[in-house]
Structures are given as C-alpha cells and as structure tokens.
From TrEMBL:
It comes from Solanum stoloniferum. Residues 95-110 form the CCHC-type domain. Keywords: Metal-binding, Zinc, Zinc-finger. Signal peptide: none annotated. Pfam families: Retrotran_gag_2, zf-CCHC. This is CCHC-type domain-containing protein. One of its GO terms (molecular function) is zinc ion binding.
Amino acid sequence: MKQGTTTASVTSHINDFESIVTDLENLDEKIDDGTKALLMLLRTLPCSYEDFVDEIVDGKDTISLDEVKSSLLKICSTESSSQFRSRSRKGDVVCWNCGKIGHVRRNCDE
C-alpha cells in the first residue's frame, strides 16, 4: 500500500491480504482471527500507519480482523485520516478517547 492511501486502495489491500490468507488455509494452514488481524497490522501496513497500529492495539488483549478492517476503512474514508499518514503532522492527531487534538489515546490523561 502506498502513501496517500484512498479507501479504494485500502479495500484492494484488504482483499489481497484475504486472498493470501485463503491460499494459506487451502494449504491446511489454520490461522485464527486474532493472528490474521495482527499479521495484517504488523506485517502488511506501511510505516506511515504506525500511529494507527498503536491506537488499535493499545490496551487490548484480543483484536479481530473485522475490527481492523472496519477501522482501516473508517480512517481512509474520513478527512481526519490524514493524521495517520504523516508522522510529521503529529500536532494534528486527534485522541480517540477524549476527542482533543494533539495527543493519542495511549497518552490521554482523561
């Protein structure tokens, strides 16, 4: 996936990922949903999504592939999604916990 990601390219990325998982499962490799989600997050997203990865896994014991997919599509379909694409624009980050600008949930005092 490239910088300046659109919803269409994220959808394509998700479809490509699911195709690879399906191929592995057809070879009798069983992959649970949480592992699929973590593989998708940690191994296939570009470095520009590091803040997104941190936010979605922060404080969670488990995470589902559906949660990852819906969150990815959500950030790409909203104007605020640009906050995850550039680490140089850290001041524009919006906290998912309190909604304030300038910090992320893991650094939220509320």
